[in-house]
Amino acid sequence: PQCHDWVTRVQKKVVADKPDAIFTNSTRPRDYEPGDWVPPTYTPIFDDFIAAGIQVFGIRDTPWPHNAAGL
Questions:
Q1: Is there a contact between 48 and 54 (Cβ–Cβ < 8 Å)?
Q2: What does the alpha-carbon distance between residue 10 and residue 22 come to, in Å, rounded to a whole number?
Q3: Spatial distance between the Cα atoms of 15 and 22, rounded to a whole number of angstroms
Q4: Could you tell me the residue ranges of all domains in the chain?
Q5: pLDDT digits (tens, 9 = 90+) for 28-65
Q6: Engineering a disulfide at 36: which of 9, 14, 27, 54 sits with its beta carbon 3.0 to 4.6 angstroms away?
């Protein structure tokens, strides 16, 4: 819930600020197998930015910790 609330607030602020574009990670690592995926909650956020005239540049394969220790 905390993450969702933060995303909602930031999303509204970004749309209000009307930047030319945003850069964001666009995938997450899979928990129990190799590779990454686009969570279904990401696409509606990207669509809202695009509908507001804001280009979205999605970055893949960003570093992620593999466990709670960051390893």
A1: no
A2: 12
A3: 10
A4: 19-64
A5: 888 888 888 999 999 999 999 999 999 999 998 777 77
A6: 27
Whose CA is closest to 43, among 26, 65, 60? 26
**pLDDT, tens digit (0-9, with 9 covering 90-100), for 1-38:** 688 899 999 999 999 999 999 999 999 888 888 888 99
Task: Name the one residue in this structure whose structure tokens are 């220790």.
Answer: 69
Question: CB under 8 Å to 16, separation ≥6 — which residues?
Answer: none
Report whether 56 contacts 20 (CB < 8 A). no
Neighbours of 11 (CB within 10 A): 16
- The single residue listed with the structure tokens 């850069």 is 23
Specify the pLDDT at position 15: 97
